[in-house]
């Protein structure tokens, strides 16, 4: 077939994107004869206690009648595996007092696909009145704290439907800083625009490791209720699992919140198990979309984790093994940065969670996209910060996110790698920074 032409949808999703670059760097052949430091992707670390926990569960399945054959030989319902959903609902309602049952939970093939569903259910073209002859309007999703996760940026089917509110920030004397939501700017935007369909944040924030305070989350939930829109909270790194969160934050859910969870960062990234917690009407809609797009979600992750969630073992493992592991890794990378970057102007975002550090280099004389190419030649893979700034409004109602002073000055670094990789990568980054300072 010559001259293949895609639809607008096809061109949008098949074109260049930050998430494609990230996943390509994870999976493609690496430079020959050069030690490789994979600081760019989102792969979690292999933690022996976590792997042993899942191996024990798999052995139970293999050794119990036809459990394995039934697991691999049958579809689950579009909403998800009934037993898994019941375990999740039981644990969350009992532990946190949330008013949820099985009707409030759906399972998707990873949280990435969950957000594709959610974003396109609440943004893009709407027909008022629900008939073909109704008035067409376009709704948006607002991200209150940009920089935000690169994997969101290209998920809207309609173009121009994502709006990013640039983060405020505070610098501290110990080479650290922290982002915070500019609520004045956010509330002004919501007041001036009646076409906002949803708010969305990640907590902990990917890429920066920022954890929104409980007050910030409650404030956002109140805004969602005031404007009659959902607040999407991406909890892939958060509480109660995988518990890669180093602050005193508490998990939050109410009927204005759509909470997304995952099994990826607690040892099962390949099994693509996303969990959505929402009011039942939205869960019914997600289940219908799942049936159309995927028939059903993969069963293996649900089968391995269900009993572990119900018994509390998964959460205990997260608390006792996963969190301490990553906290130690974060401390090690910070130590390396302070060592190798000594004498330069640099800041590390306060490490409050996730598996990343966000490095701000104010004196960098080249864009981080260009620095990324120089680093690749030495076998160091990172994520340049530009990809995490997206959502400039076309109506000029606020400055473009590209005008944020951090736009071309930051790198996202994955600290889940072995210590020798971390040390080598940070050393090479610091050397290139010194060569490319203003």
Describe it.
With 438 residues, the protein is α/β, with parallel strands linked by helices. Helices cover 39% and strands 17% of the residues. The protein has 13 helices and 16 strands. It has helices spanning 8-14, 18-27, 48-62, 67-73, 82-96, 111-122, 183-192, 214-227, 280-294, 300-311, 313-340, 368-376, 419-435, and strands at 37-38, 105-108, 124-127, 136-146, 162-166, 168-172, 176-180, 196-202, 231-234, 257-262, 274-277, 347-349, 356-360, 380-381, 383-384, 410-414. The strands form three sheets. Strands 2, 3, 4, 5, 8, 9, 10 and 11 form an eight-stranded mixed beta sheet that branches. The longest helix is centred in the last third of the chain and has 28 residues, at 313-340.
Separate helix tally: 13
Overall number of strands: 16
- Distance N to C terminus: 51 Å
Q: Please state roughly what percent of the residues sit in beta strands, choosing from under 5%, 5-15%, 15-25%, 25-35%, 35-45% or over 45%.
A: 15-25%
Brief write-up:
The protein has helices spanning 8-14, 18-27, 48-62, 67-73, 82-96, 111-122, 183-192, 214-227, 280-294, 300-311, 313-340, 368-376, 419-435, and strands at residues 37-38, 105-108, 124-127, 136-146, 162-166, 168-172, 176-180, 196-202, 231-234, 257-262, 274-277, 347-349, 356-360, 380-381, 383-384, 410-414. By secondary structure, it is an alpha/beta fold. Strand 12 (347-349) and strand 13 form a beta hairpin.
